[in-house]
Amino acid sequence: MSVGISNNNAIFQRNERKISFEGINARKYIDLFSNSPVSDAFVKEMAQGIESMGIVGQKTIKGQNLRYKIAQKTSDIFPELKGHHPEGWPEGTTVDNAPGFSAVGFIALFEKPIDQPKPNITLVRHETLHGLDSLFGKIFKGNEFFTDTKGFTKAYLKDIKNLPENMKKYGKKVKDADTYINYLIQGSNPQKANTQGKREAFAVIGAKLNGGSDQEKLSKGMDKLIDKVFPNTVAYVEKLLWLLGKR
């Protein structure tokens, strides 16, 4: 999930503390908060998620000056958002239901989201890829995100056009395949790509290419299905990662 939330420096300066886990280089990118303590095991898993991104993660973090904010839940470090219901979310939910999100300059990960499982390594990859999307969009004039470029949009729409037929061929063997694929579509059709659909497709596919996606964690076989039903988009994202040095 990618959201626009302003960085509250006063909160961070008041509550931030540093951690140190020997052998985990990701520790220097992680901030913890004294008013919202989390377990060492959770922090270590999140750090391993950062490490699993390899060269792609390193360049994204450095390019965005990215920080990973780890706490129990959203309102602990963003008290001004307590009770806020984001547009489009299920009725009765608030930001405290979110296991994590990405914003300008940081990624937030929460050990105790309300009525949701805590995030794992795959979500770290997913949110980091949202950061990469916005980072490389800056290179292409007139585009805020990489997913706004003509090349990415063309590849994505080509897959959307062939999606119904490909889902009939390959989607039946994967549990809840329609639900997870719809997350990558979000109303897109062969004539027009939905912006959020493109954003999520990039994050899921990028994570898939960097060790495994959150969708694979939820439903075994999703990563292989994505290769089948989004072949052009996968190939396009793979080219970008190759340019970053991923081999």
3D architecture notes:
The protein is of the alpha/beta class and 247 residues long. The protein folds into two domains: 9-137, Glutaredoxin; 146-244, no CATH class. Strands 1-2-3-5-4 form a five-stranded mixed beta sheet. Helix content is 49%, strand content 8%.
In short:
With 247 residues, this protein is of the alpha/beta class. The protein folds into 2 domains: 9-137, 3-Layer(aba) Sandwich (Glutaredoxin); 146-244, no CATH class. The chain has helices at 9-15, 40-51, 54-64, 74-77, 121-137, 150-170, 177-183, 195-208, 214-218, 222-229, 231-244; strands at residues 16-17, 30-33, 67-71, 100-103, 106-110.
Keywords:
2 domains, Glutaredoxin, 8% strand, 247 residues
Give the topology.
Layout: H1 9-15, E1 16-17, E2 30-33, H2 40-51, H3 54-64, E3 67-71, H4 74-77, E4 100-103, E5 106-110, H5 121-137, H6 150-170, H7 177-183, H8 195-208, H9 214-218, H10 222-229, H11 231-244
Parallel strand pairs: 2-3, 3-5
Antiparallel strand pairs: 1-2, 4-5
Helix pairs in contact: 2-5, 3-5, 5-8, 6-11, 8-11
